[in-house]
Amino acid sequence: MKIASITATAALLCTLGLAPAALAACQAAPEPAIPNGASAQADEMSMVTEEVKAYVTNMNEYVQCLSFQAKDDPSGVQKVNAAIDRIETVTMEFNKQLRAFKSRG
User: Which of 55-90 are b and which e, b meaning 16 or more Cβ less than 10 Å from the residue's Cβ?
Assistant: First the structure.
């Protein structure tokens, strides 16, 4: 639902002619390094939590940017889907490692 909301917002802004010029060059965020939850320290997990949140925020902006470009470039849809897949992969791996960290007690 979140992605649909982002796409709808992007489409609305394009329709209204409000797409910022700064969005012309879409830039994906680098993926955060996710430590092994079975051996990570609490400060590592805390830091990566913030990094993953920032990554997801940036990637949502990237998806929005790509959505603007997809209007004029059919390959943009593939880029949007690939970016969404990366967000899901990173968050699933983070959640897996966070569960492993928390299971240590």
Answer: bbeebbbbbbbbbbbbeeeeebeebbeebbebbeeb
DSSP codes joined into one string, 3-14: HHHHHHHHHHHH
Rounded distance between C-alpha atoms, residue 99 and residue 54, angstroms = 20
- The pTM (predicted TM-score) of the whole model is 0.73
Q: With 0-12 CB in 10 A as exposed, 13-18 as middle and 19+ as buried, what is 94? A: buried
Using N-to-C axis directions, what is the helix angle for 42-70 and 75-103, rounded to 10°? 170
Q: Average the pLDDT over each of 16-20, 86-90, 92-96 and give the range with the smallest value.
A: 16-20
Nearest to 9 by CA among 49, 56, 68: 68
